[in-house]
Amino acid sequence: MFCIAIANQKGGVGKTTSAINLGTALAASGHRVLLIDVDPQGNASTGLGIGHALRTRSSYDVLIDAGGLDQAVVHTAVPKLDIVPATVDLSGAEIELVELDQRTHRLHMALEQSRGEWDIVLIDCPPSLGLLTINAMVAADALLVPLQCEFFALEGLSQLLSTVERIRARFNPALSILGVALTMYDRRNRLTEQVSSDVRAVLGKVVFETVIPRNVRLSEAPSHGLPALIYDHRCSGSEAYMALARELIVRLPKVEAEVAA
């Protein structure tokens, strides 16, 4: 099982869209995928058609109990894609976790009890660097960073990388950067091209070749409770996420070997 946290402390950069559509693409390629929604807004859960009535247990219960992951899993309409949904209870989890033992390792402890049930675990993080995101980074083997092509992108990225270094030093020395995915890419905008060039100059091969374009169908799909890959698999956004998933799989040789076996 390989665990990937999808994180960026800046909101509106495409974290949840990436989590939903990469999860769908990876499941379509034959992997057993679990998506864990730890964002109190619960957009990943809604975007996969998981209504509030189906969220009898959630990632909140998993974090507070440090277990019971299997009881919180909900099957989605996408074959081989499961989700641990989020509820508004997560809004208070940051405060509650402070008083608990192993408060930074609660999600890691829960995942260890279910190791082997899925090939890939994706964690959709909130747009902050609080205890929810720290739990995700401690549990993760690697980090995937969606990065919007805008002026402040590099500044926000440097803050995130500093946090990753602190997580490595204190909690999870094996945490790696799987890749940076450029999102909301608009080829008509010269600033987009400049930001892309700057990011690639600084980070090199860490940046995925595939870019995710601005695409109306990507924005429409969640309102229908569907991944864009199912809502409109021929749109440019869906095609980009399929290409990104193929790139991601190449960077996960261990997972490939396990599935082949």
Automatic annotation (TrEMBL):
Involved in chromosome partition. Localize to both poles of the predivisional cell following completion of DNA replication. InterPro entries: AAA_dom, DNA_Partitioning_ATPase, P-loop_NTPase. This is Chromosome partitioning protein ParA. Residues 3-177 form the AAA domain. Gene3D superfamilies: P-loop containing nucleotide triphosphate hydrolases. It comes from Sphingomonas palmae.
